[in-house]
Amino acid sequence: MRTSVMAACLLGLFLFVSQPLSVPSRQIVNDEAGASPKTVDDEQLKAPSVQNETQTAVHPNGTSQHLPQTIIIGVRKGGTRALIEMLSLHPGIAAAESEVHFFDWEDHFEKGLQWYVSQMPFSYPHQITVEKTPAYFTSSKVPERIHKMNPAIRLLLILRDPTERILSDYTQVFYNHLHKHKLYQPIETVLIKNGDISMDYKALNRSLYYIHMQNWLKYFPLSHIHVVDGDVLIKDPLPEMKRVEKFLNLSAQINASNFYFNQTKGFYCLRDRGRERCLHESKGRAHPQVASPILNKLYQFFHEPNKKFFELIDRTFDWH
User: Fold this and answer.
1) In what ranges is there compositional bias, type Polar residues (predicted)?
2) Which of these is catalytic: 38, 46, 77, 235?
3) Which of 67, 131, 207, 230 could disulfide-pair with 162, CB 3.0 to 4.6 Å?
4) Per residue in 77-116, pLDDT tens?
């Protein structure tokens, strides 16, 4: 009799242990007493078909990995690193450490959304998860892919004067070649062909903002895309960051004490809870000297494309 009872108990215990553990998609846990709830709009978090396809990893401390609610989509050499570093000053933000390239690299995209989630940081329920991949803006297939994941997502786009962006683009490639002990063509050679602006130069295409913006506006309303002025951000970061806070419905946390001007580097660095840090030394490099006639050609070339872009977003920038 005693043996039968014990056997029944063991069988019951085995059946209980073998049941699959139910894990909520978002664990409602605060990281500290009085933590404020996430203030981003509820609709922004809704992507039912996608959320059901992914499983959320939950950490014992109440943090979890999940799809981003905000993506910095570009542009390359527009100031995306500065933007995500400054945005990370806000306690309501959890930012991915590296560029994920999920939507623009086929080998990553084929791994599926579960892999994408695994690349995200662990965050508390009140935080907004953000990732940045500057190449998204100029990739024709990315807008539709992001829209399928979450049509209500909020997008951040940081842009600079197109000519300045090209010079910065060239500078990065030049130093990459230099680091590998390889030669690279002078900037005049890549910019000019047969006396005119060379349309073969890829960096030129990246600065034709209106072409790429037209593609994004096919899938997202302008109200879901906030354009950050990259030229202003590096000169006076606080006003631009206050606009970003407002766009993401974040509480006002970033303030003047978070920034200080580094005379040696020549740009603003960050101060976060007593710790100071600057962007990597590769940021803020001096651009190559370009002859005035070539610069004027670039200014003239971008005049009409810039005008079209301003009309698209119903806003102007102080560009040449």
Assistant:
1) 49-64
2) 77
3) 207
4) 999 999 999 999 999 999 999 999 999 999 999 999 999 9
